[in-house]
Amino acid sequence: MSSTRSADPIHASDIQLAQARISSTIAQTPLQYCPRLSEATGARVYLKREDLQDVRSYKIRGAMNAVSQLSAEDRAAGIVAASAGNHAQGVAYACRTMGIQGKIFVPRQTPAQKRDRIRVHGGDAVELVVTGDSFDEAAQAARADAAARGAVVVEPFDNRSTIVGQGTVAAEVLSQLTVEGKALDTIVVPVGGAGLLSGVLSYVADMAPRTAVIGVEPRGAASLQAAIRNDGPVTLDSVDPFVDGAAVKRLGQANWEIVEANLGRLHAMDVSEGAVCTEMLDLYQNEGIIAEPAGALSVAALRELRFKPGEVVVCIVSGGNNDVLRYNEIMERSLVHRGLKHYFLVSFPQEPGQLRHFLEEVLGPGDDITRFEYLKRNNRETGTALVGLQLSAAADLEPLLGRMEKSRLDCRQLHPGSPEYEFLI
């Protein structure tokens, strides 16, 4: 059994009713002016800090709105949900606070930090099941379990009540800007299944029709753009799981109907996973914001956008559930994205002293070897080696490649996306 999904249009009044319904349990998050990003873009950039929710994500809005409207019969039947992690925390929170038993399915890619927080928020009210290699596989398992037990599925994005709840983010943004005497010119929204995007689109269509909406998805999981190209949701063959909060293979049908009705105000784009990592680090270093990968999507997009001087731009920082154990990978991906980290396969001749030759004649003064691994281990200084180099500046790469070409050594650069590169990150 699944909670009802409706194709009825969503209006600002629906979202305002949801705002009143969940206001006692949902914090109004700050709308924070960002001098750094404003100076970089020429716009007046604000960050909507949904990472400061009790569950560190806007997902609590949709979960609480959906669960709070279930009948007594549905609550008694129990709740089932599938999630990459943040929706699960919202559902877990709702189960514990409302005294409802829940069963939550997450894919194996879900970071340990998110799994731990699901258990904390749900307590004894929630059973956590880890299954499948993607959100979509976990969702299949959740729906099968709900059908077998007669439980109620609380969908993370493809559901009217969930969408209405997520739309309260836009309602808060417009209210907060009005208090400051400002109008919203552009809002930048991270996109996975498009629950947040469709809620925002629904609200601004009624309340701020001149506002532009930019939907940003990870390059490795661009289901929104695939739906736009194909005039409807399509299932991607695969997704890059790194931006786990937005790694969804297929846009929701209810979400698509709203997107389709608002294509005139929507600009869809994607950003690379490396760009996301760079912005996660910048947010931490400059604003002290701990953003998860999906939470940094909207801000990462600013580097590729152009705004009119002084226009008001709001980026939704959608979540802050990031596992500290991921920071080595985040740093690595950022360095590669910025052109500061490169990998090479170097074939050393079967002669002594070739490693010294590489160090003294090929490397520049600012080059730092961060990884050196012989792929043939029968002789310490012969054979092919994997060499990872960190440069002091991206411009140092061309001189390095020139020295490699003139060298007696056979040096082959590995490029992101190549089969040999996959095991490095």
UniProtKB/TrEMBL annotation:
GO biological process: isoleucine biosynthetic process; L-serine catabolic process; L-threonine catabolic process
Enzymatic reactions: L-threonine = 2-oxobutanoate + NH4(+)
GO molecular-function terms, A-Z: L-serine ammonia-lyase activity; pyridoxal phosphate binding; threonine deaminase activity
Known EC number: 4.3.1.19
Cofactors: pyridoxal 5'-phosphate
PROSITE patterns linked to this entry: ACT_LIKE, DEHYDRATASE_SER_THR
Keyword Amino-acid biosynthesis applies: yes
Key word Kinase present: no
Keywords assigned: Amino-acid biosynthesis, Branched-chain amino acid biosynthesis, Isoleucine biosynthesis, Lyase, Pyridoxal phosphate
Top EC class for this record: lyase
Pathway: Amino-acid biosynthesis; L-isoleucine biosynthesis; 2-oxobutanoate from L-threonine: step 1/1
All copies of domain ACT-like, residue ranges: 342-416
UniProt family annotation: Belongs to the serine/threonine dehydratase family.
Its job: Catalyzes the anaerobic formation of alpha-ketobutyrate and ammonia from threonine in a two-step reaction. The first step involved a dehydration of threonine and a production of enamine intermediates (aminocrotonate), which tautomerizes to its imine form (iminobutyrate). Both intermediates are unstable and short-lived. The second step is the nonenzymatic hydrolysis of the enamine/imine intermediates to form 2-ketobutyrate and free ammonia. In the low water environment of the cell, the second step is accelerated by RidA.
Subunit structure, as described in the record: Homotetramer.
Protein name per its UniProtKB record: L-threonine dehydratase
Organism: Corynebacterium mastitidis
Gene, per the UniProt record: ilvA
